[in-house]
Amino acid sequence: MAALRKDWDTYFMDIAFMVSTRSRCPRRHVGTVLVQGKKLLGTAYNGAPMGVQDCSEAGCMIVEEYEPAPAGTSAAAMVKKQRCIRTIHAEQNLLLFTDRVDREGSVVYVTDQPCWTCANMLANSGISEIVYYRPYPKDYDKVAALMEQRGLIFRKLEYYAPPPDTEVQDGS
Asked: How many helices (H) and strands (E) does the chain have?
C-alpha cells in the first residue's frame, strides 16, 4: 500500500518548520516560506543580521513595552510585552530576500502567527494569504482586523502537527 500523500498546506508548513531549525534564537525558532501556486519561491528564519553575533553567542537584547490591554478588559489595564531587538523576524527576512514581483498574489506559510510589525509589512508586500500554526495571542485581535481590512486570507492550520524535532519551546 502506498503512503498517503501530504496535502499542500501540510507540505509547505513542514518546510517552514524545517527552515525554523536554522534559527539560533534561544527563545523561539520561526520559519517561513513564500509560495506562488505550488512553487516554493523563498524561505527565511529569525536571527541576527548576517555577520553579527546572534543571541546564542551574545545574549538576547530584551526590551519591555507596555500597551493597552485588549478591548473588554479594565480601561486602565496595560499589557507588558518583552521582545528581543537583536533578532530580525522570519517574515522580515523573507521580505528582504524575495522580490515584490514574486510576492504578488503569493501565500506565506509561517510557523507562528505574525506579530503586529510583521503583519503590517506583510499586508503591504503584495501577498494574498498568510497561513500559520502557532498563535500569538498578544497581537491576534489587531492582526486579524488588519488582515480583514486588507482583504487578505489569514488562517491557522488547526489540524497540523509539526515534524518531530522541529519545535523549540517559547522561552519568553
From this structure: 6, 7
